[in-house]
Design goal:
Largest sheet: 8 strands, mixed
CATH topology: Rossmann fold
Oligomer: single chain
Number of domains: 1
CATH class: Alpha Beta
Radius of gyration: 16 Å
Helix content: 25-40%
Strand order of the largest sheet: 1-2-4-3-5-6-7-8
Shape: globular
Distance between the termini: 20 Å
CATH architecture: 3-Layer(aba) Sandwich
Number of helices: 6
Strand content: 25-35%
Order of helices and strands: EEEHEHHEHEEHEEEH
Length: about 240
């Protein structure tokens, strides 16, 4: 299959952002947003969008920081991330605006939308679900699970899949239990797959900082992508 890609700019509140869309054939297909890590939209997310296109979907690697904005060092990444953690209403607003823009793309079937995300992106897709947005499902991959303070109590319509490294120091077992309780009490169709001996950032080949709880795992990367593919196939059946 030949995957077609194109970048497109869009504006939110007067600021320009750039997404990259990957499509199998240019036709309207179920759309899957790819939400980026704390570094910003990179080739990692673009490659995942292409992998989604190879599965028959339209993948869209979205941008939450602004066109050309990317963090290279830990300090830069933290500086980009922190405002979103401190102002969850801003994150919520930007995610919903981006979701609407994604639905407007010719290659996207607006009635069939899902979102996946990595690290900060995992937090982001759960944020989308918690707004009660009209979205089929979300996949959080080594994402933060904590409920935001601005949660409105809206009914969650999305099915939820969480793919979690059990030894992730950013998401200890108490957070996992609290999340599963939240989802259960909300009546959500949810799943959680935990990978033993696996730390944060397990899908990133460049992650090599076990002292700080971040390490790539080829097995968890492969297993989590297979789980994602199975989940999307079920969503869009």
């Amino acid at each position: 299959m030949t995957v077609q890609t194109r970048a497109f700019d869009y504006e939110i509140d007067g600021k320009t952002y750039e997404a990259v869309l990957a499509s199998p054939d240019g036709a309207a297909r179920p759309g899957v947003l790819v939400c980026h890590t704390w570094a910003g939209r990179s080739e990692f997310e673009v490659e995942r969008a292409k992998a989604l296109a190879a599965l028959g979907y339209t993948g869209i690697a979205i941008d939450l920081y602004g066109k050309g904005v990317f963090g290279a060092t830990t300090e830069e990444k933290q500086g980009l991330l922190t405002p979103f953690l401190e102002d969850r209403e801003m994150l919520r607003s930007k995610l919903l605006a981006t979701l609407d823009i994604a639905k407007q793309q010719a290659e996207v079937d607006a009635e069939n939308i899902a979102a996946i995300g990595f690290c900060f992106g995992g937090l982001s897709v759960l944020n989308i679900a918690r707004t009660g947005a009209d979205i089929k499902g979300v996949v959080s991959i080594h994402g933060l699970l904590g409920k935001p303070g601005n949660a409105t109590g809206a009914k969650i319509k999305a099915k939820v899949l969480v793919l979690h490294g059990w030894d992730d120091p950013l998401v200890p077992p108490d957070d996992v239990v609290a999340f599963t309780k939240e989802m259960t009490e909300a009546g959500v169709d949810w799943q959680l797959h935990a990978y033993g001996g696996t730390m944060h950032a397990f899908t990133h080949p460049e992650a090599n900082d076990p002292d700080n709880g971040m390490a790539y795992s080829a097995d968890a990367d492969r297993r989590s992508w297979a789980a994602t593919a199975n989940f999307l196939e079920e969503l869009f059946a």
